[in-house]
Amino acid sequence: MADEPLVLGIETSCDETGVGVVRGTTLLADAVASSVDEHARFGGVVPEVASRAHLEAMIPTIDRALEEAGVSARDLDGIAVTAGPGLAGALLVGVSAAKAYAYALGKPLYGVNHLASHICVDQLEHGALPEPTMALLVSGGHSSLLLSSDITSDVRPMGATIDDAAGEAFDKIARVLNLGFPGGPVIDRYAREGDPEAIAFPRGLTGPRDPAYDFSFSGLKTAVARWIEAKRAAGEEVPVRDVAASFQEAVVDVLTRKAVRACRDEGVDHLMIGGGVAANSRLRALAQERCEAAGIRLRVPRPKLCTDNGAMVAALGAEMVARGRAASSWDLSADSSLPVTDPHVPGHSHDHVHEVSKGNLYS
Ligand code: KG4
Ligand code: ZN
């Protein structure tokens, strides 16, 4: 519908320069430039390399997204940008670009939360999020269970990892197995040909006295690394596919078990899974199976919308506009540890939009 807000979203929290354009809950463009290859030889994202790559990719990626969407920048109702959490320098490139475009075009600026964006993106795939929704957010930096009754204003943490994030565990085990970086997609691939029951790896924090909704993957990581070391020390070949499948099963077993339990305990009948690890094929399949058995409706965006992208930022920005949330002020800054409970960074009390409308440098 033409009266739904048209928003451009910029994402630079890690190594993907993502620019998306959405109208309401309709995806119009999703342009991504990744610097992942530049980090591969270091086995992880190098912040300075990421910042420089964002700077180089920013304007071409914005141009590409607008062209793909078939809209003019002048038609936008707002510009959204990831304000945090993420790598400080990388975030700063996105925030600066968003401010420059918003100011020059005379559009309101919305600094939004990367984590809430990972949840909101599902609106582009499955329509408006049910309220409340339980969200299992699993990425390279975060693993949390969140309960949200309104993604623009109310995100309540139920539990989180007490050590490594799920994606981090995938990346570390892939490194031990010499499979390269990022580890998630390659472990997913190897695991398809392996036996998930070959090795009984530990399920963290699943004892009767453990916190019901918190996660721990550091013990699992150590157990897998030790198992591999022992094989190597004995001069035996490491069965990479079985290790990948058994490790992956341990992760997704715990994630899905706790997510379903949280839904049941809270009487919530919709589970959403988001973040890079939600691209995992076994996580998607097991979650589907367990949700069906528990009478819970599962929503998982297509894999491309699970990993970092600009469309998710635009989706949350459009929701902010639709619900009349306050725009951010011009002194918006990147906050590398923005709490998950803050879906956006609102402005000060003065009328931001009015102030902007005076200075449309493009017209
Ligand atoms: O959300 P994301 O793109 O970036 C962060 O915000 O962290 O998530 C990246 C993480 C990486 O750890 C990557 O290994 C993992 O998501 N990942 C996967 C898969 N695809 C990406 N993990 C498991 N299976 C996958 N298919
Ligand atoms: Zn992410």
Automatic annotation (TrEMBL):
Catalysed reactions listed for this entry: L-threonylcarbamoyladenylate + adenosine(37) in tRNA = N(6)-L-threonylcarbamoyladenosine(37) in tRNA + AMP + H(+)
First-listed, main subcellular location of the protein, grouped into a coarse class: cytoplasm
Sample GO molecular function, one term: tRNA N(6)-L-threonylcarbamoyladenine synthase activity
Binding site for Fe cation: H114, H118, D308
Family: Belongs to the KAE1 / TsaD family.
HAMAP family: TsaD (MF_01445)
PANTHER family: TRNA N6-ADENOSINE THREONYLCARBAMOYLTRANSFERASE, TRNA N6-ADENOSINE THREONYLCARBAMOYLTRANSFERASE, MITOCHONDRIAL
Name the record gives this protein: tRNA N6-adenosine threonylcarbamoyltransferase
Native species: Streptomyces spinoverrucosus
Gene: tsaD
